[in-house]
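Q: How would the structure tokens look for this protein?
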Amino acid sequence: MGFLDKIFGNTAKTERIEMTNVKLAVIYYSSTGTNHTLANWAADGGREEGAEVRVLKIPELAPQSAIDSNPVWKAHVEATKHIPTVTLDDLDWADAIIFSIPTRFGNMPGQVKQFLDTTGGLWFQGKLANKVVSAMTSAQNSHGGQEQTILSLYTSMYHWGAIVAAPGYTDPVIFSSGGNPYGTSVTVDQSGKMVEDVEKSVMHQAKRTVTVARAIKAGLAN
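A: Here is the predicted structure in token form.
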């Protein structure tokens, strides 16, 4: 980089980055709707940042009897039948991936782990390397394993060779919604309502993920 570029910036490079189209897959698992809502907010943020977005759900493994025993769970499954189920082709297609998943004993749900376990073929072919990934989660109390759940998912992403775009403290909105630097997390009360106001944090995280992916994609193209 020349001296003037250092002072004034490389305009041509900036224009190339801004013109790079990013394909974003927002992948969620949700039993009663919280992470579906987070996923939709992330999709909105991605679109605002100019990404082409797919919202996709992880397949349900729970028996129908368990779903039927919980009216809220059953209603959510019925209400989201139209949402496509994620496939390996979606991972191959995406430049960036945002996961939104609930906490299960400080870890990811079995449904999510089962899906990740099917990605070995793509990994072996190197097709998951350099994907830009980020994650969000929810739990029923503020110390219910949110951070650990996100970090456990990132462990798989490191094996992919993916690039984790955590929100960190890159915007003041992070502090006003719980301050989780690894990814947006939210507490859900007994009535199923979100305690913290995290919509802006989710939007910021999605935009940051797309911005990082755009820069990575532009750089790899040079």
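The chain has a mean pLDDT of 91.

The first strand starts at residue 23 and ends at 28.

Upvote if useful.
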